[in-house]
Design goal:
Blueprint: H1 9-28, H2 33-36, H3 39-50, H4 59-94, H5 100-115, H6 118-129, H7 133-158, H8 162-169, H9 174-208, H10 216-225, H11 229-257
Helix pairs in contact: 4-5, 4-7, 4-9, 4-11, 5-7, 6-7, 7-9, 8-9, 9-11, 10-11
């Protein structure tokens, strides 16, 4: 067997630094593992979980929960759609399609959009848009635009340039060459990214209600704040069912698109 290729020192140094960071994290954080596994902690947790049983199954409450679930689903779907459109619009200059001058500032804008979490966006937008799902939808769209814009730009940059160059050489217009050569290469990957972010946004939409952005999260915060554990258990179950349904649908669609 031929000898193994030499390892780059940069990889070894990076691994050592990561190991030191992990060790320093365990050393500096006050992790009370022993107190977490005491009999009193286990008994308290068991008593707390027992308060969730049985879930609230009254028809009026189930109807209200279904409406909140539909609101959460609508927030995630609309927020993802707006983010996909905005991300594609920003990905074109971010991939250098309009020259190198715009590439750096657009990439910086995408970094800013995705570096701010959805909860922070929702807290900011609640001041402008008020309580309700509108602010939550805008928060999801703002954060996801930065994520999808960066992923779309990378997909466009990684597409093979030769098909578009061949069309341009044979007299095709720049936009036509892009639409017929480069975009079809990146489109399946871009759709897969969009569906994956929809999975993430359904979870984020369920949490955004905690800050007053509507949906299941707002119901959960209301009942937990009043220590109404049985209605809260029904809301949590609705969250799990909704997330599982969206995950299954998104996974099936990604399988179809990436074949």
């Amino acid at each position: 067997m031929p000898p193994a290729p030499p390892r780059a020192w940069s990889i070894i140094i990076l691994g050592a630094l990561l190991a030191m960071l992990v060790a320093a994290s365990f050393a500096t954080l006050p992790l009370q593992w022993r107190a977490f596994f005491t009999l009193d902690a286990v008994a308290s947790m068991g008593e707390f979980l027992a308060g969730f049983a049985p879930p609230e199954l009254a028809l009026p409450f189930l109807t209200k929960t279904a409406g909140a679930a539909a609101e959460t689903l609508a927030m995630s779907a609309l927020g993802t759609l707006l983010a996909a459109l905005a991300g594609l619009a920003l990905a074109l200059p971010g991939a250098g399609r309009f020259g190198r001058v715009l590439r750096a500032p657009v990439r910086a804008l995408l970094n800013v959009l995705r570096s701010i979490p959805e909860l922070v966006w929702a807290s900011i937008l609640l001041i402008a848009a008020g309580l309700g799902p509108f602010a939550g939808t805008l928060a999801l769209a703002a954060h996801t635009s930065g994520v999808l814009g960066r992923l779309f730009a990378d997909a466009l940059e990684n597409a093979a340039p030769h098909p578009e160059a061949s069309l341009r050489t044979n007299g095709a217009a720049p936009m036509a060459a892009f639409l017929y050569a480069t975009l079809p290469q990146a489109l399946p990957q871009m759709l897969s990214y969009t569906l994956y972010r929809w999975e993430n946004n359904i979870r984020a939409a369920a949490i955004l209600g905690v800050v007053g952005a509507g949906g299941l999260g707002q119901m959960l915060k209301y009942h937990l704040s009043l220590f109404q554990m049985q209605p809260a258990a029904t809301v949590i179950a609705a969250m799990l069912l909704l997330v599982g349904l969206v995950d299954a649908v998104s996974f099936a669609l990604r399988r179809v698109l990436t074949r």
